[in-house]
Amino acid sequence: MPSKLEDELFPSTPGKFKIERAHTMNRQFHRCFSSTSTMFVWALLLIALTASYLSLQSFLDTGSRYFSASWGGIQWEKQVRNSAQTHRNGGMSVLVTGAAGFVGTHVSLALKKRGDGVVGLDNFNDYYDQSLKKARKSLLNEHGIFIVEGDINDAKLLDKLFDVVVFTHVMHLAAQAGVRYAMENPQSYVHSNIAGLVTLLEACKSANPQPSIVWASSSSVYGLNDKVPFSESDRTDRPASLYAATKKAGEEITHTYNHIYGLSITGLRFFTVYGPWGRPDMAYFSFTRNILQGKPITVYRGKNRVDLARDFTYIDDIVKGCLGSLDTSGKSTGSGGKKRGPAPFRIFNLGNTSPVTVPTLVSILERHLQKKAKRNFVDMPGNGDVPFTHANTSLARKAFGYKPTTDLQTGLKKFVKWYLSYYGYNHVIHEGQFRHLKSGSVAVLD
């Protein structure tokens, strides 16, 4: 008879079965629990690794964007602040858009020379030879003016600039220029002259304090107007080109931002600006190059063989008008995008007030270059050019003493002297300098 101990150690078959079944279920339970725990731990580990990877990737991406960006960083901010620092009592701190452009370069230099702070912004597009823009940039750098390379459509860049510097004024000169190119690439005009303007105005109206704005409109807004001289009160609702239409749209848009947000805004209608460091696509510029190279120039004529005429305005006179407009612009009245009262809204003509025909322009260049031009007279195509421009500048004279002093003879002499010193006598146009135009149709008047 089995002992009690044996009975305890070795239970009867039924009891043994129950115990083994219970042990089996227990082992399965522990195995299952152990497996679930392991999976849970591995899941947590996987989640942790994934989170770490994503964090690392985000850090690397941020760092990559930081190091690859053309703006931002401690050193960049230091350069911006130093450039914006004023050096005269009551000096302005001015953001100049299109600073590497023709007018932008001259205005920036004039502001810096009198002790104002200047920060430039330019996207260095390839509408014409970029090397000329880079040379202007070098000139500005030599005078302590920092140029930020970026687009006015970059809202984050604009916000950053206004965060780094409290600009008192904005001189908005960035735009897609040229009348005829609009027939080939209309989107570039909408992108720069309308969308870019709105992006800039959004940044200005949200700034606290708001800056005063002076911007470049154009004499082209007078379009098919045949009343002379052109006055600011004349009709401007019949543009002859898309370029003119975008500038007219800009005048309406700026009026809206003035009315709603209290931005002080002055629009300047430039009349055919010329001079040293000018735009290579302009007629006087390409005429000079072709005359020196012995190549023919194309001189357009209007209906009934009437010579085209322009109110050619020397760059120094334009600069005086720009600075006068900044000095008398008045203050914006908004704060944080909310208007507190009416702010100045002005539009001025800046011209020479003495139109000159294109054949006369060519004759003056011939005298300065001491070389005859080979002229081809062609009827003006329907490309947006207008037959004449003539500025009435009485409003600008009354507002800030604007008075042009440089006639075309004197201005072209200065231009030719610069041209020969910069390019020499045998400047050859290279492929890519005018990617959008053929050599026979380079010259534009506005």
TrEMBL record:
<dbReference type="GO" id="GO:0032580">
    <property type="term" value="C:Golgi cisterna membrane"/>
</dbReference>
<dbReference type="InterPro" id="IPR036291">
    <property type="entry name" value="NAD(P)-bd_dom_sf"/>
</dbReference>
<keyword id="KW-0812">Transmembrane</keyword>
<keyword id="KW-0520">NAD</keyword>
<dbReference type="InterPro" id="IPR001509">
    <property type="entry name" value="Epimerase_deHydtase"/>
</dbReference>
<keyword id="KW-0413">Isomerase</keyword>
<comment type="subunit">
    <text>Homodimer.</text>
</comment>
<feature type="domain" description="NAD-dependent epimerase/dehydratase">
    <location>
        <begin position="94"/>
        <end position="328"/>
    </location>
</feature>
<protein>
    <recommendedName>
        <fullName>UDP-glucuronate 4-epimerase</fullName>
        <ecNumber>5.1.3.6</ecNumber>
    </recommendedName>
</protein>
<comment type="similarity">
    <text>Belongs to the NAD(P)-dependent epimerase/dehydratase family.</text>
</comment>
<dbReference type="GO" id="GO:0050378">
    <property type="term" value="F:UDP-glucuronate 4-epimerase activity"/>
</dbReference>
<feature type="transmembrane region" description="Helical">
    <location>
        <begin position="39"/>
        <end position="56"/>
    </location>
</feature>
<keyword id="KW-0472">Membrane</keyword>
<dbReference type="Pfam" id="PF01370">
    <property type="entry name" value="Epimerase"/>
</dbReference>
<keyword id="KW-1133">Transmembrane helix</keyword>
